[in-house]
Amino acid sequence: MNKERISYKDDALSSLSRGEWKKALQSFQKHCDQEPTDLRSRLKMAELLERLEKKKEAIEEYREVAESYAGDGFLLQAISVNKMILRIDPSAKDVNARLAQLYMEKSRESKHLRPLPYIPLFSDLSEQELRSMLDRIQSKTFPKDTFICREGEAGDSLMIICRGEVGIYKQSLEGGEIWIRNLGEGDCFGEFGFFLDQKRHASVKAPTECDILEISRNELEGIIKTYPRVKQVLQDLLKKRVLDFMLALSPIFSSLSLLEREEVLNRFRPLKIPEDTFVFKGGEPSHCLYIIQSGEVEIFIQGRRKKRVVLGRLGSGHLFGEIGVLLNTPRMAFARTTQPSKLLELAKEDFDDLLRLFPKLQSIVKEISSKRLSRMREILSRESVEKAKESMV
Fold first, then answer.
1. Of the four, 23, 75, 149, 295, which is 20 to 30 A from 31 by CA?
2. Averaged over 285-305, what is the pLDDT?
C-alpha cells in the first residue's frame, strides 16, 4: 500500500513537470484520498483546479486547506492560501473572518495543552485586530537569491515571512556588509522604516524562494488608529531589533554569535538623556559603560586651567566609558550629550560577568581601550607642546 501511495504522488509530480495538468490532478486526487493530511499536495490539487478553470472546486479546496493550516496553528500558511482564494474571488471577504475566528478558537484550546507556534506580530493580537490585519495584507513571492530590499532605499511597509527565510545584512561602521541574522516563517521586518524615517535600515535577501506578506504604511496606520495596541506590539519588536543591530555592529560584541548577543542584550538597560547633560564626569567612579543607540555624545578632558580638550564626538552604535570599567580606575574623561540621546547602559558587574562568560571579549576590549588611551596621551602631549610654545612668545 505504501508503494502505491508514493506512486500516485510521484505520478502527479511527473505529470505536472510535463504540463499534463489533467493527469496530474487525477493522480493528486488519488493520493489525497489516501493521505488527506498532506496539505501541500492538496494545495497543488487546488492550484491545478484553478488552472483548469474549475474555480468553484478550487476555492472549496483552498478553503479546506486554509482551515486545516489554521487549525494546526500554521496561521501564515493559512493567510497565504486565503490570498489565493481572494485572487480568484475578491468578494469572498468572509474567509479572513473565518480564519481569524478559527485561529483564536484553536489558540484558546491549546493553552491548556500544547501552545501554538508563536508568531511575533500576530500571536499578540485579538480576534478583531487579527481580522483587520488580514484584510489589509498583500502577498508576494520572491525567487531564490534575490534582494527584497536594500539598505537606504525608500520603504515604510511592514513585511512578514510566510514561507522560506531571509537574511538581514547591515553596513558596518568601518564599511562593508555584516550579516546580522536570518529570519524565518512568522518573523517580520520593515518596522524601522515605518517608525523612523521611511527608509530601509538593512538589506534583506532571500536565500531560498519565499512568500512575503506585506502591509503598507497607510493600511497599518489605519489598523493602529482603530486598534492602538498594535502599535505597542510593533514598538516592542522595534526596540529589540535596534538593540540587536547595535550589538551586531559594535566593535566589541560583533564577534559574538546570535545566541551570545541575546545573552548580552538582556544585561543592558535603556536610558534617555536630555541634551547638554553629563553622562559622567572625570574623576567619578567607573560604574558603567555605554552604547549610543541614537543621538550624540561628546568625550572631552580638561587640561590646564580647565581648558576643554575634545577627544571626539560619538554617534549611533559607538561604545564609550569602557576604559575605567576595564581598568578599575576613576573616569579619565567627561561625557556629555550634545543632543537628546538614547543610550544602552551596562553595569560593571554585568560587564565583568560577560567577560568571564565570553573570554574572547577581553582581548577585543583591551585593544580598543589601548587605542583610545594612546589617542588621549597624544592629544595631551600635543596640548603640552602648544602651552610650551605660548610661554616662549
1. 75
2. 85
